[in-house]
Amino acid sequence: MAGLHKSDYKNPVVNWIDTRLPLFTMMNKEYAVFPTPKNFNYFWNFGALATVTLLLMIATGVFLAMNYTPDSNMAFDSVERIMRDVNYGWLLRYAHANGASMFFIVVYIHIFRGLYYGSYKTPRELLWMLGVVILLLMMATAFMGYVLPWGQMSFWGATVITNLFSAFPLVGNAIVTWLWGGFAVGDPTLHRFFSLHYLLPFVLIGVVFFHVVALHITGSNNPLGIDVKSPQDTLPFHPYYTIKDSVGLCVFFMVWAAFVFFAPNFFGDPDNYIPANPLQTPSEIVPEWYFLPYYAILRSVPNKLGGVCMMFGSILVLFVLPWLDTSPVRSARFRPIYRALFWVHVVACIALGFVGAHRPEGWWVVLGRVATTYYFLHFLVLLPIIGKLERPLPLPESISRPVIPPRGGGGPLPGGAPAKPMEKP
Amino acid sequence: MRPALSTARAGGQFAATLLAATLLAAPAIAQEGQLPHPGWSFSGPFGTFDRAAAQRGFQIYKEVCSNCHSLKEAYYRNLEGIGLSEEQVKAVAASVTVPTIGDDGQPAERPALPSDHFKSPFANDKAARAALNGALPPDLSVIVKAREGGPDYVYGVLTGYGEPPAGMKMGDGMNYNRVFPGHQIAMPQPLQADQVQYSDGTKPTLDQEAHDVVTFLTFIANPEMESRKQIGVKIILFLAMLTGITYVVKRRVWSDVH
After folding, report:
1. What does the alpha-carbon distance between residue A276 and residue A72 come to, in Å, rounded to a whole number?
2. Measuring CA to CA, which of A211, B70, B146, B232 is 20 to 30 A from B215?
3. How far is A411 from chain B (nearest CA, A)?
4. Residue A389, class by beta-carbon neighbours within 10 Å (0-12 exposed, 13-18 middle, 19+ buried)?
5. How far A424 CA sits from the closest chain B CA (Å)?
6. Do B250 and A235 touch (CB under 8 A)?
7. Contacts of B181 in chain A (CB under 8 A)
8. Residues of chain B with C-beta less than 8 angstroms from the C-beta of A283
């Protein structure tokens, strides 16, 4: 129904705008008074950290793009010009390059937080699936961004990854030629990757927007994984969580700065400071660290198409996770068996990361196959079964009245011991 | 101030650990021979370039390396970063002629300016290969960033020449090197003791020459390093204080939550 919004704002200018476009009312509702569970721990910082990282990546990236040339003869030198000629160009580039790693660290912690506390379960399935879309878009953006400096690892990484599509029968080679814009990775590939690398972050912003909208419809999960029962269970987002997120943000910036200023090439591969040479393959082609687990899965399967399918499957399986996990209890705090399996799964993912960084020889092959098997076993077999077999611990009555101590198992406490997060000493 | 300072020190240690981790993460090289760790003026979160060593290193680049290796990403003006005066830089640049187009539209030559890139020894890669038995000397602008092990690796190659072990079959025109991957390098040993004459009285041993030129090349690869680290220390200190203040405010805000 059309009609002006009835605004409560006293300031005449704000009121005039708010009446016609209730942005102020919306921001107040969604970010100031928005009721948020009062028992978040610091793992609930990471969504905000990811949003800030995305914005900073776009900010640094826009300025880098002003000075970068996506031409295969000039790209490498233009990056060096950014490092040497552009005022604080080295800061822009190092912040952006390390920012990619920071973004993945933050998002991976955010995802494992969701896995541990069951944030993907009803009614948050769509919220979770939008998150998986965000991960896929991030991966595509990061991959294409890594190609832009046009070093050896850029070129050969692009060659290996785009060649994965050739595994598909019949249409595979046609797809690869289409992706390349030619019959090998070359100038057209670099130009289109630059264009898409600039485009996708804005698509990401759109999906992040829907991710946040969906979050504000269902409300946040919390460490206990139980629903908000009454207003006593919640706090207004501002100032309680704006300030708590700010603490995490400061610490996060310190970590990011430590890399940018003191070890700016820590995450990079030395080979990428060698200009791309299509006639000379590096002794080892290794993706960036955040792709190593998928790379390990790819190489653990002795069949190319099988490996490619398993690699994509390792992400796609997350889309159906809300229906694979049959337990109605969200938080692993009350699921002793799932909690143990969660940590096994974390170990398997980290092991896959190490496997991806080593040549597929000897024990690394065995370890890669065991970890790959567990990765899929965990989602496809164990989660559906233990949801039915496991006996969860008794759930608290409400967030403000937990019947058991917030951490670990243990027996029930005398009822009514209130949760007191962060009291002054 | 004390918590902020101790955080900065912890930050420094953290960064030092990271740097150590970067240097240790060289499994490929460890198999082929240990990398030397001579110790560098520029390592660590407070490290700076030893100006005298970097200037001696520039002398070595100019007199030895530049016969074959380009430094094409660097500018003559960068030399002010290792302590040369503006006048000295102008003189260094002016001693080189670079191609240009004259007012008559014909190719001509002019003296280089501080704003010019270092002049490359060869017109192009093919000219370099033709002159050097088919081998292509890599550009040295970012060489210490482009090799696993960084400065230690470059120093290791420069000091790693020797006789091949008995039974090792060397390729035609190849030289044995303990550090170079595969141990066969096309470049003949570039530095010997007393190869150059240092004007500051430093004894030009092989180790000293290698040390000096690696210091210079590390500067050329990271001309921003000193200001980067100085800004970094300030930013970490600032963020440490901001974290402390934000945390105190957070405790205040949350003090009424039960």
Report:
1. 9
2. B232
3. 22
4. exposed
5. 6
6. no
7. 283
8. 28, 181
CA-nearest of B220, B206, B209, B166 to B59 is B209
Q: Which amino acid is at A308?
A: V
Contact B41/B215 with Cβ under 8 angstroms? yes
ipTM of the complex in this document: 0.89
Distance of alpha carbon A357 from alpha carbon A291, whole angstroms: 10
Helix then strand then coil, % of chain A, to nearest 5? 65, 0, 30
Mutation site, A41, A79, A84, interface B, largest B CB count within 10 A: A84
Chain A CB contacts of B141 under 8 Å are 80
Percent of the residues in chain B that have a pLDDT greater than 90, as a whole number: 81
DSSP character at residue B144: T
Task: Say whether B74 sits in a helix, a strand or coil.
Answer: coil
How far is Cα B67 from Cα B188, in angstroms, rounded to an integer? Answer: 13
CB pairs under 8 A between A and B: 114
Q: What are the structural domains, with CATH classification, of chain A?
A: 29-285 (1.20.810.10), 288-392 (1.10.287)
Tokens of B47: 């490290």
Q: Do B228 and A90 touch (CB under 8 A)?
A: yes
Q: For residues A25 and A406, what is the distance between their CA atoms, to the nearest angstrom?
A: 36
CA distance B113 to B111: 7
pLDDT in tens, A273-299: 999 999 999 988 999 999 999 999 999
Which domains, and CATH codes, for chain B?
49-74+117-227 (1.10.760.10)
Interchain pair B228, A77: CB under 8 A: no
Mean pLDDT, chain A, as a whole number? Answer: 93
